[in-house]
Amino acid sequence: MDNLQLVFILLSLLLIVALILLSFGGKSKKDEWQDEIRNRLNKLIIQSKEENKIIINSTVIEADKLLDHTLKLKGLPGETMGERLKAAKTLYPAKLYDQIWEAHKVRNNLVHEVSFRISDKRALKEFNSLRKGITHLLR
C-alpha cells in the first residue's frame, strides 16, 4: 500500500466520523421550533405577572397566537385557528380542550368586541388555559 492510498483511506475515515458526529450533534428541527415556542411562552409568562390590564389582556391574545403557531408547526390542517383547533381535538384531554376553546373565544371577544371587558383574574385564567394547551403540544 503506497502513501497515497493510506492518505485516501485516512481521509475517508475522517469524513465518515465527521458525518456521524454531525448527524448526532446539534439540535433537530423539532427541538429548534420547540425551543422557540418555549422561549416565547416564557416571555409571556413573565409578562402575565404585570399589574397592567392592557398587558395582561395582551398576554391572552399573544398566547392564542402562539398556540395557533404551534398547531401550524405540528402540521395540523385548517385555514383558521378554529379549524386547526378542531383538528387538534384528539391531542388534548376533553377538559383542557374545552378550556382552550373558551380561552380562544375570550381572545376573539377581546380583539373584535369594542365593549368587551374581563377582569385580570379571568384574563390570567384564560392565559393559563392557552399556556397549558401549548405545553401539552410540546411533550
Instruction: Give the overall pLDDT as a whole number.
Output: 89
Briefly, what CATH class? Answer: Mainly Alpha
Number of domains: 1
Q: Unreliable stretches, pLDDT < 50, 5 or more residues?
A: none
Helix-residue proportion: over 70%
How many strands appear in the DSSP assignment? 0
Gross morphology:
elongated
CATH architecture: Up-down Bundle
Q: Tell me the radius of gyration.
A: 23 Å
> How many DSSP H or I helices?
6
Please describe the biggest sheet, giving its number of strands, its sense, and whether it closes into a barrel.
Answer: none
Order of helices and strands: HHHHHH
CATH topology: Four Helix Bundle (Hemerythrin (Met), subunit A)
Percentage of residues in strands = under 5%
Structural class: mainly alpha
Q: End-to-end distance, in Å?
A: 54 Å
Detailed description of the structure:
The protein is mostly helical. It has a single domain, classed as Four Helix Bundle (Hemerythrin (Met), subunit A), CATH 1.20.120. Helices cover 76% and strands 0% of the residues. It is built from six helices and no strands. Helix 3 crosses helix 5. The radius of gyration is 23 Å and the shape is elongated. It comes from Candidatus Dojkabacteria bacterium. Keywords: Membrane, Transmembrane, Transmembrane helix. This is DUF4145 domain-containing protein.
Quick recap:
This protein is 76% helix and 0% strand. It has 139 residues and is mainly alpha-helical. It has one domain: Up-down Bundle (Four Helix Bundle (Hemerythrin (Met), subunit A)).
Give the topology.
Elements: H1 3-24, H2 29-47, H3 53-73, H4 81-87, H5 94-112, H6 120-137
